[in-house]
Design brief:
alpha/beta, Rossmann fold, about 45% helix, globular, binds 5-O-phosphono-beta-D-ribofuranose, PurE_prokaryotes
Length: about 160
């Protein structure tokens, strides 16, 4: 089966965050793979992943990393596929370090940068879904239904419970 989304992360420790992206992709019926690809610890793996991503048929890459989070930007430099960056929350600087490392890309090599942490990972999955839905009407319907259900779950009045 063709895999549409590549979820990559700098470390095993990022999976607790990045699995939120995997969960939403699964919920929406989107195929994905999840790999540990570190810009600093496995640079050759990063290079070959980026070099082959498009020819392997991936359509979107979600890249999460923390601290000196160079993985999303380096991946964007190596593939023309859209790269969505997730700043992982860190202990030392709460993920602001990750955010700053990912967001401020030079002109020409964009990374679509999400919020810090789990919300960012979920939104990365939803952003990937939105991109894929442009060419997949059935997925567009599933995504719309997901959004409608979320809206319907929000009460109009606050409660003490
Ligand atoms: C980054 O360093 C990873 O993305 C991770 O968020 C952070 C810490 O990695 P570990 O020391 O937990 O492996 O490269």
């Amino acid at each position: 089966m063709a895999i549409d989304v590549g979820i990559i992360m700098g470390s095993q420790s990022d999976w607790a965050t990045m699995k939120e992206a995997a969960a939403i992709l699964e919920e929406l019926g989107i195929t994905y793979e999840a790999k540990i690809v570190s810009a600093h610890r496995t640079p050759d793996r990063l290079w070959s992943y980026g070099k082959t991503a498009a020819e392997r048929g991936l359509k979107v890459i979600i890249a999460g990393a923390g601290g000196a989070a160079h993985l999303p930007g380096m991946m964007a430099s190596k593939t023309r596929l859209p790269v969505i960056g997730v700043p992982v929350q860190t202990k030392a600087l709460s993920g602001v370090d990750s955010l700053y490392s990912i967001v401020q890309m030079p002109k020409g090599f964009p990374v679509a940068t999400m919020a810090i942490g789990a919300a960012g990972a979920t939104n990365a999955g939803l952003m990937a879904a939105g991109i894929l839905a442009l060419a997949d009407p059935a997925l567009a319907q599933r995504l719309q239904a997901w959004r409608d259900a979320l809206s319907a779950s929000i009460p109009e009045e606050p409660s003490d419970d």
